[in-house]
Write a structure and sequence with these properties.
Layout lengths: L11 E6 L5 E2 L14 E5 L1 H7 L2 H5 L30 E3 L1 H7 L4 E5 L9 H15 L3 E5 L3 H13 L2 E7 L4 H9 L3 E5 L3 H15 L2 E2 L8 H15 L7 E5 L4 H15 L9 E7 L4 H7 L26 H10 L3 E5 L1 H15 L5 H16 L8 E5 L28
Parallel strand pairs: 5-13, 6-7, 6-9, 7-8, 10-11, 10-13, 11-12
Antiparallel strand pairs: 1-2, 1-3, 4-5
This protein binds pyridoxal-5'-phosphate (PLP).
Length: 411
């Protein structure tokens, strides 16, 4: 490295526009490309591959940073950590039994810091912000991304400003505020919050950290694909069901698989990528079915699965590309199915999914019935947040300690 500040070798060569391919220099602050599209990070994969092996990675701590060579942070001192551990793959016995399938695995991302997989993307975005000298960050959020931004910014000594729809659950809003962000509720949806963040940049000097409007959240979410491949002994599963809002994770995993194939760590097989949305907000499903490259803004978006209540995604064409290239599809499920599935899996196997995770389970049931997913396929469901941050059904039974207790009646 020519710059003395950089203590670790990383393999980033440049950034590129996801639409036109135009190059942009690394090591500078960027939002979107000139044409208003997301920027992607490019690596010298040849050099990367000659500097690290699967065996070396296997000896490292079970956390996101074990994939250091695949990530853009140059100076190790800039890494902001809250314990980004690898997340487990848990067989869903009730789905396997009910659907007569051999392998339905839940990737439980609720174990990550701040209780959701947003921690992966934000850990990278904030570490890169620190590296590039950004001191003030802002974002629109439906809850989980804001919680991660607040926590990582506070950890890094960076100011954070978070804007959420005013119907975001109180537990999320309070978590964001308690972790040190300036927190604002807005009478609108996430895209309205996004407009406020974007328009405020000039007056406030804050950095717009919106989904895909900065280049590094994708790199953090890419680790889901790297981790999944490693956990399956450097194989990919047959099908991945991903609850799709802005689509960072789906795009990031697709990037991971392409990079892994380029260095020969996996073959040309790809999982079929299935974008799961709620029927009250399904712009990607509509565009997929109409064979379009871009999705239209979804009006009156409603779903209790807040993480996927995203009426317009700037990376829509990247989501649709990955889904189509993979031979996958996009599908929507009703909120009533989401709730029913969440309750059933929690009661039957002690696995409390978030509504977005439950949406992938409901989609699996629907698509096995339709024949679009076969019973002999290995399926991964993404449970992207802990179910503990969402409203739960009441539990009102009572015991009066001053009265005789009829224990048999408790059974
Ligand atoms: C953000 C979020 C999603 C959507 O993730 P994207 O990668 O932005 O599509 C799904 N579920 C939960 C719980 C989320 O917080």
């Amino acid at each position: 490295m020519t710059n003395a500040l950089f203590d670790a070798e990383t393999f980033v060569t440049h950034l590129s526009c996801s639409e036109t391919g135009k190059h942009y220099p690394a090591d500078q602050i960027h939002n979107l490309s000139d044409t208003g599209k997301p920027l992607l990070v490019n690596y010298d994969l040849k050099r990367l591959a000659s500097n690290v092996s699967k065996a070396q990675i296997a000896t490292r701590a079970p956390e996101l940073w074990r994939y250091r060579e695949f990530l853009p942070v140059r100076n190790t001192a800039n890494i902001v950590r809250l314990g980004e551990l690898m997340t487990p793959l848990i067989p869903s016995q009730s789905l396997q039994n009910a659907l007569s399938m051999e392998s339905v695995l839940v990737k439980d991302e609720g174990r990550l810091p701040t209780g959701s997989f947003k921690a992966r993307g934000i850990a990278l975005a904030v570490s890169m912000a620190k590296e590039l000298g950004i001191t003030r960050m802002a974002m629109p959020t439906n809850g989980n991304a804001g919680a991660a931004l607040a926590a990582y910014c506070t950890r890094a000594g960076i100011e954070s400003f978070v804007f959420c729809p005013d119907d975001t659950p109180q537990v999320n809003i309070r978590e964001i505020a308690l972790q040190g962000a300036q927190t604002f509720q807005v009478n609108g949806l996430i895209n309205d919050c996004g407009r406020i963040v974007g328009e405020g940049c000039a007056a406030t000097g804050w950095f717009d950290t919106s989904t895909l409007k900065e280049p590094y959240r994708i790199e953090g979410k890419k680790t889901m694909g790297l981790e999944l491949a490693e956990q399956l002994n450097w194989q990919v599963p047959d099908v991945i069901l991903y609850p799709t809002g802005g689509g960072t994770g789906l795009i990031g995993m697709w990037k991971a698989f392409n990079e892994l194939e380029a260095i020969g760590w996996i073959g040309s097989k790809r999982p079929r990528m299935v974008a799961v949305q709620a029927s009250g907000c399904a712009p990607i499903v509509k565009a997929f079915e109409e064979n379009k490259d871009h999705a239209e803004l979804w009006s009156d978006a409603t779903t209790l699965a807040a993480g996927i209540r995203v009426p317009a995604a700037i990376g829509d064409f990247l989501i649709l590309n990955a889904v189509r290239e993979s031979g996958g599809f996009a599908t929507a499920v009703d909120d009533s199915d989401i709730l029913e599935t969440q309750t059933r899996i929690a009661r039957q196997e002690g696995l409390l999914l978030c509504p977005e995770g439950a949406a992938t389970a409901a989609a699996l049931v629907k698509e096995v019935a339709s024949g679009r997913i076969r019973r002999d396929e290995q399926v991964i469901l993404f449970n992207c947040a802990t179910g503990l941050k969402y409203p739960m059904p009441g539990a009102e039974r009572f015991v009066d300690r001053f009265e005789p207790i009829n224990y048999k009646a408790l059974l």
